[in-house]
């Protein structure tokens, strides 16, 4: 382990941006959590900041760059100079940041390189082989995957990494207080998902046809970054085609989702593919009655449907039925929501993450009890 001036181990992360995505939220969660267990924590944002920057603890060293592309040599060497000066024990790179992470490792032989793979299309891994990893993997010391399918995939593809590839669940924060939800007027539904085909908001929209006649007044709030503009156009066209303009609001990117979770009666995730969605964990931490498609690690989070409705992907009919099931027996849905919160805290909270992460990232480190909930 390298020695730094603070006599604390040092972990720096590399992430593309601080926009409102699951990968970016995890980088912030990890950065903050490390400072509470006695690790010097740094976060390097290569391309641009975003709404999540304000959630970084002051104790996290943050560095924002303005990378112009993969071949932005000037920015690359600025980051390299920074890392040589800081001399972190671990460089933890997220998703596509592995490109620069692997190059940086060539100049930082004493720094352990961890690649955190958040790939969301875990149902179609064979269709997305990511051939570039054949050239980058030699620089990687450890792989962390966000679900078991991705873990198994990399172990099979790179047998020499089988003992250095791990599945560690994502984690989310907890609401200060669980709201007391009642069916007293408009039924409010939220969907936290960036606007991409993979998140399949159109299936959710189609599931709402004929719903007003069965449950009365309702409103759906779509929260997320406008990642694929053509998909956003399709979503808007579908809303208009089905005459649901009064029932659906496209909120767009939101820095703080907590007020929406607090006011909602139901949270929905209608994705056609996932890794381990942070949005689902946020529903759980908020004790929110939930419906999710049975993709990625969603079944594990919902305990195979024990703590929320689990439905097939691309099935508006099943989603429609599940909304009715929750609405027509809402007291039971609330109880499942509270159970969901306990399950999420126990298995997908910061305690679970750092218990698995620290022994592989910093095997000789004994965490300080700065925040007893994290150790």
Structure write-up:
The protein folds into 2 domains: 10-171 and 349-369, Rossmann fold; 187-347, Glycogen Phosphorylase B (Rossmann fold, 3-Layer(aba) Sandwich). Helices cover 37% and strands 18% of the residues. The chain contains 14 helices and 13 strands. The strands form 2 sheets. Strands 3-2-1-4-5-6-7 form a 7-stranded parallel sheet, sandwiched between helices. Strands 10-9-8-11-12-13 form a 6-stranded parallel sheet, with helices on both faces. The radius of gyration is 21 Å and the shape is globular. The two termini are 21 Å apart. The model is unreliable at 1-5 (pLDDT under 50).
What distance lies between the first and last C-alpha atoms, to the nearest angstrom?
A: 21 Å
- Write down the secondary-structure element order: EHEEHEHEHEHEEHHEHEHEHEHEHHH
Per CATH, the superfamily of the largest domain is: Glycogen Phosphorylase B
Biggest sheet descriptor: 7 strands, parallel
**Mean pLDDT figure:** 92
Query: What does the radius of gyration come to?
Result: 21 Å
Figure out the total of helices: 14
CATH topology of the largest domain: Rossmann fold
Count of distinct structural domains: 2
Shape: globular
């Amino acid at each position: 382990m390298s020695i730094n001036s603070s006599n604390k181990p040092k972990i720096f992360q590399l992430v593309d941006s601080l926009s409102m995505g699951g990968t970016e939220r995890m980088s912030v969660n990890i950065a903050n959590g490390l400072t509470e267990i006695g690790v010097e924590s740094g976060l390097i944002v290569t391309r641009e900041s975003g709404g999540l920057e304000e959630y970084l603890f002051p104790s996290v060293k943050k560095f924002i760059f303005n990378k112009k592309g993969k071949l932005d040599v000037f920015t690359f060497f600025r980051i390299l100079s920074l890392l040589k000066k800081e001399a972190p024990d671990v460089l933890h790179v997220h998703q596509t940041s592995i490109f620069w992470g692997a190059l940086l490792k060539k100049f930082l032989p004493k720094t352990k390189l961890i690649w955190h793979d958040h790939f969301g299309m875990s149902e179609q891994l064979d269709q997305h082989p990511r051939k570039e990893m054949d050239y980058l993997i030699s620089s990687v010391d450890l792989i962390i995957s966000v679900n078991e399918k991705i873990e198994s995939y990399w172990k099979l593809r790179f047998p020499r990494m089988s003992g250095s590839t791990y599945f560690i669940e994502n984690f989310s924060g907890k609401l200060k207080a669980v709201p007391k939800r009642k069916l007293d007027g408009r039924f409010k539904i939220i969907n936290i998902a960036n606007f991409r085909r993979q998140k399949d908001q159109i299936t959710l929209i189609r599931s709402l046809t004929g719903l007003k006649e069965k449950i009365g007044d309702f409103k759906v709030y779509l929260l997320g970054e406008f990642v694929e503009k053509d998909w956003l156009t399709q979503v808007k066209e579908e809303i208009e085609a089905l005459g649901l303009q009064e029932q659906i609001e496209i909120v767009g990117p939101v820095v703080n989702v907590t007020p929406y979770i607090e006011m909602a009666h139901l949270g929905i995730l209608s994705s056609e593919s996932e890794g381990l969605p942070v949005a689902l964990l946020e529903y759980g931490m908020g004790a929110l009655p939930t419906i999710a498609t049975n993709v990625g690690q969603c079944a594990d989070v919902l305990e195979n449907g024990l703590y929320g409705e689990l439905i097939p992907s691309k099935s508006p009919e099943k989603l429609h039925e599940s909304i009715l099931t929750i609405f027509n027996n809402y007291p039971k849905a609330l109880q499942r929501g509270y159970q969901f919160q306990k399950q999420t805290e126990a298995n997908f909270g910061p305690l679970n993450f750092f218990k698995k992460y620290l022994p592989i990232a910093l095997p000789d480190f004994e965490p300080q009890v700065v925040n007893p909930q994290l150790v």
